[in-house]
Amino acid sequence: MPAFSKKPDNEPYLYGQLASIFEYHIQRIKIEKVKGTFQLGHLIEQERISENSLHRFFIGEIKITEVEGTGTVGIGLTQKGSKKEEALLSPQKADKEIQSIYQDSQSLLNINQVPRFLQRLAVRKPVLKAVWNDIKRSWQTSAPFDRFYENVLALLDELPLPSSHSTRVYIPSSIRMEAADSLEEQAKTLFIALMILQYLLPGEVKVNHLKRQKVQAEKLQPSSSHPNAQNMLQAIKEGLQIKQLPSTLKQLEEHAYALHALLFSILQPLVQKGQLELYVHHLNALYAQTIKQVSFDLSLTELTAEEWSFLFTQAAEHLEEAEKHLLLNYPLALMCDREAEKS
Where are the domains positioned within the chain? Predict the structure, then answer.
């Protein structure tokens, strides 16, 4: 039997609008077989939760001998369906009110793409509306977004990447342009996700950001000695632990030489030299600086606890994903354009 205790946290004022904070101190858990669902924390299945709460776990050791085929194990906040394909509401399927928000977001953020982060929030329309109203109230110009984007670019510029002209890796200009547009969109929505997390759970990013951004270096090496495009895409996805690859990388299936350069000449050396870890540390410092300099208030009184949890989950996932998408799109934006060279 595990040594177990549950107690309310005595510092709820540190955690924004969350009404109840619970800590679970577990010294040891030993389970022979999991047949169904073993979940520590809330398992949300579209039902309304009666209170806004946070559950934190401090676990010394977990030993599970076997998880049967359909069994699942989860620790912390889990949402049903989180392992499915990315859920978002595209501009083509959105109603006029959401389309208007999408257009306004492009104007305020000064970007060419409809933010994917907002398309994900639009799955729960009340969440998107509440967040967007507060964004408009907090910022009337693109200046704070532009400033954060420039700071992120400065960090990416510090990465020791090989010269694209020295490697002579060519990709279509359409992919390069999309990568450049995506860089700006991802950085500016990363800023939004950061401010949401800071409001909902102050200190969360500072405490857990470095723990979440883990890379499995051994999986960056494709299993095949002569990898094709699919092998390399899978290695990038598993090595960087990304749920969804950027659309720009998916377009490189027909340009295996560019994928080869990205994986073997850029990503693997960055990981081996510790530069990827340094990049994450520098981002963490940028987050801390931004949080001190920028204020952002959310007015979410009309949202249900389930919608709060949805917003927190989406913001945390976007923070992690956007950091890695930035890392992948940046080299693509720098790769050579054969037509440009001819001119």
Answer: 4-79, 141-342
